[in-house]
Queue: 2 jobs
Job 1
Amino acid sequence: MKRFDPERVRRDVPELQRTVHGLEMAYLDSAASSLAPRSVIEAMSRYYERTHTNVHRGVYQIAEEATEAYELARRSVGSFIGAPHPDKEIVFTKNATESFNLFARAWGASVLGEGDVVVLTEMEHHANIVPWLQLKEERGIELRYLGVTDQFRLDLTRLDETLAGASLVSITAMSNVLGTIPPIRTIADAAHAAGALIAIDAAQLVGHAPMDVVDLGVDVACFSAHKMLGPTGIGVLWARAELLASMPPFLGGGGMILDVRLDSFKPADAPHRFEAGTPPIAEAVGLAAAVRYLRSLGMDAVAAHDLELTGYALERLGSQFGDKVRVYSPQDLVDRGGVLSIELEGVHAHDLAQVLDRHGVCVRPGHHCAKPLMRRLGVPATARVSFGPYSVERDVDSLLSGIEHALGMFG
Amino acid sequence: MDDLEDLYREIILDHYRSPRNRGELPTPPAHRTEGYNPLCGDEIVLTIVVADDVIEDVRVDGHGCSISQSSASLMTGVVKGKSLDDAKVAMRSFKRMMTVAEEDDPDADEPIDVRKLGELAALQGVVKFPVRIKCATLAWNTLAQALVEMDA
């Protein structure tokens, strides 16, 4: 595997050239949003400066160029995740949350009814819980949950029992709090054996490790561009072609129809059926540039880089602070990504993050939109540390100095 | 790091480490109100006994950061034993200090006399950290909600 130089990636990211409180920024919040390289920003600027107009409408040259750029983005993100038919399977949404809502509304609300079972896990982001809770309230579906072990892994001891009679399993491909990567292929096979579909929340995985939807054996994947070095405002719903083609529209409006009469309409084919209104065109161009950038680094190398820093952080946190720092995350480097949550004895995560800010360190305090998981862990809030390809060991060193400071202040 | 020390003054750390009027009063006679800060995940439970327009007792339980917890502790010390009118005056002054004056506050534009705020003045450093204002006002907003619920 060819490795990249993270210092070069740092130079490629304009935001890392600025300082905070006069210090170099130690950006350890990539799980919230990643920092875009210059090529992504420039691709979007270039689009606005040269090619911008609406897509799928005009016949003039720039209209064709804009449409081509937008559809090219669909193909490039599709091939990035191993989608067999990108042109029919990739839907651009606003973000991963909207992707889940689209799936829950279009598929869930048309297929699921009273007593139908959707299986989730206790480590889900709210984006993969609340849309299903809404269906529970509105249509009486039943939700079941796979638990989390004390080693911060998915508890699969009762997998078959939980899946029995289920219509859908919808689970995270990498926890945004713990960094845990569940055995998706195993769960997908079990889901299919039980006659259920499987959807994954790939928001944390897709920009940090190689991901192939066919190898994973999943039916649906949801993710956001801004967590994979791309811009905000665009997300992706991938679904197997036959599944997507079977789903009724989500939002109604222009661009998603074949024909409209005063008393009826005919929806367009997928994926356009699910893209009502002017889509995020510049953002799609930015996402395509992000995919190019990630490809140039190599996803195996990106994953290895994240794990190397995770190992360094785990080792240093343990050796320097011992029991004073509790780590909510698998302690080994197997089946996990570059995310870990910490809690300091006697220091609330919010206070820790405030002190860390003065060291130039950006971490996320709070419940990370995963309140059921926080309740399971028995902790109201953690400070989450997460890495990106621009992260380096001195970011972790800044984190350690900040923790030392916070312990001294509150201890 | 001066403003950080301004935020985490010794009195705040003291109230965080040793919160006053901690816990829950039995309901009834106490009234119970929950307060949330959805952004941070802070959750508090305020129980309060009002008789003859006087706050006879008030306690706060729950969890949150040093700012939300110390502010709750300081608040209980200020309003306990006070008349409802005096408590509401303190509430309005505090929210003015936090630059989030109530719409119906007749003195919204008046300058704040920090000396009148007593120990509460320790929290004025929070204003420099806009994200934390919600932490400091959580207990007060929960108290306001409790008073509305009690029609007090």
Note: The longest strand of chain B covers residues 42-51.
Job 2
Amino acid sequence: MQSSHSAETPPADAGGAPPRGLIVLRLGEIFLKGRNRSSFVRALVANARRLVAPLAGVTIEPAHLRLLVHHPPALERRVIEQLRHLFGLHSMSPAVGTTRDLDAIGAVASAEAARLPPGTTFKVETNRRDKRFEMTSQEISREVGTRVVRATGLPVDVHRPACVIRVEIGAEASFVFSRLVPGPGGLPVGTAGHVALLLSGGIDSPVAGWSAMRRGCTMSAIYFHSFPYTGDRTREKVLDLARKLAPWHGPLAVHVVHFTDAQKALRAHGAAELAVLLYRRMMMRVASRIGAGERAKALITGDNLGQVASQTLDNLAVVEDAASLPVLRPLLTFDKSEIIERAQSIGTYDLSILPYDDCCQLFVPRHPVTRARVIDLVAAEAGLDVGAMADELAARAERVMVG
Amino acid sequence: MSRPPSIYLDNAATTRVCRDVSAVVVECMEEEYGNPSSAHHLGISAERRTKQARALLLGVLGDPDGTLGDVVWTSGGTESDALGVIGPARARGRRGPRQRHLVYSAIEHSAVRESIAQLCRAGWDATEVPVDCHGVVSVDELAAAITDETQVVALMLVNNEIGTIQPVADVARAARARSPEVHIHCDAVQALGKIAIDVGELGVDSVAFSAHKIHGPKGSGAMWLRRGVKIDAMWGGGGHQDGLRSGTLNVPGIAGLGAAVRLADAEREEHAARWAGFARMLLDSVRAAGCRFQQNGAGAPRAPHVLSLAFAGVPAEPLLHVLESRGVLVSAGSACSERDRRPSPVLQAIGLGPEFGTVRLSFGRETTSADVDKAAGILVDAVQSLS
């Protein structure tokens, strides 16, 4: 086995450096950002480097409005897998770099086209990043296309080609590529400030957190644990959900708030049909305190208008009234099916649908109020030092790093 | 998170491997590591280990010379159940246009239930026979479910959730009277080492066992198969074990099973008496504290190592968590589906209402009276705090 194995290994490049693969990354909305652009690109590069750090021999080189990823050829698939988590990335393309010489470009483009099935229609598209190049983009496309036809015999179709071979002419070199892998879009994590996510074991809140990260937020999560009514499996499940979000963000703090005693006190004090709203108002107070301690500029929730009784417009307002940070609800107007689709694509869905206990369902009547008023809640809280309770809960929260 | 030292009362789920057993397992891994199929001395000594284990198991089953049947080594109770249910069904289903029907009790382990469900997806019919409120199947009802078309009957010896002993020997007699050809499979995973088992007495065709329920290693089990009974293998391969279960024998697991069986049998009566005492201690405590509860399976003969208590108005999962936080490890069960958790078919079958939360306390050879005494107090506290 050993000997046949080594026989299959290609011989090392005689004398030269080992061959390197190249992936060109295109930035998303960053190009819109005038004076802030450099800080956006810095964040993007740092995040990209974090993502490829586990892969030996991969380097990232900023190149104007592109990032170039150089990698050992065998790692291409894994580099692409990792960079799918890079917010701010519009798309990426495995590419071949060459000189600006038309014959050299034609040879690389022909090699790319030679991998296509016989009879595949194609066209060449050129982008001159260096506008001083002596030919127009159309002229370059035509010249390169002619060389490809000559080398491969593939038919050209400029209107509806099955494959587009793209050429980019830079200041010193050029790239040829035909594959386009979409990135997640959005803005680089770390460019929009910090938020605190109210994370449960359900489907919605991880998606809400992901959405905030996609707009460039760094984030920590806050989970309300009601032992023994929610077991340690549920806590582990929530941490697993946070671990699923970590690749998009980097290591993530999860604050576990031990909520049971407060819940019991609230439930004993107020009317049963207000219980969920009392719990949620307390969650807002605690989350605002924990968030403020981390300089969070907003709270993020998975609220979805009308999904459950506590999510009517009236009740959302009643809950928000207790928060001292702005409450943002990225999923407010989504349909459940859209949330599920998103959860599936970011990989949290299969975890979220595992059985879990929702602490808001504790000691709760079948028919809670759907149109509460703030004055009713304030009256229900009278006689309880809700501020001191929140201080205590926030102070006693456990902080767990994941990712 | 720091945890209090555990009082492990979940021995029906699995047990700690005892030192005498793990020593044998390690010896087979490190010293006598041969393949029993090999012709050299290491192979022969490994084969000797499996023969010893076979003799130990057959001895405990009341068939010391293997005149009635023989042992098929498997990966555990689940595989033994699959082999004992699907194996004969396939062997018979293949013979021709014979009818395809199975009969099983409502409290079978999921290994049996799911094997039957798999056959049903392949066109078989099955009849589930209910149990009474004590968790025991009626011999007459089960016999009545058997038709000329029935090929396999499955009935467990001791139920894993509530510990009730099923009238397997009576059912086997009645089943044979109705249909002499029928294959009768018995899941005895929770019976081994807990009550006396005599395969001659039981009169069944195949019996499933597992090592890890009796302080043996996980991943090791056995099926006893009556001589002359035809079953299909689950898969093909090198033709080991008369082609019934191809794959190099798991010698450490088999020897571990043998050692665990020897120990369990030697200590069985002593432990049975201790465990019955533990159950009484726990019952007395919850009764004295005025808890509203019932003992599942109370009106039926039961194996001594399982005590299933249903508390009125106490949710099962939180009860489990409170017990765990105070160091008492048990299993929980409920007859209703709270949110998306699966309800227990056994607790449903005995007609337990949704207002009851059930905990199963199960004892092993290491359980001490002091542990149970302490656990009883914690159980009462926990139930009262959640009522």
Note: The two ends of chain A are 38 Å apart (CA to CA).
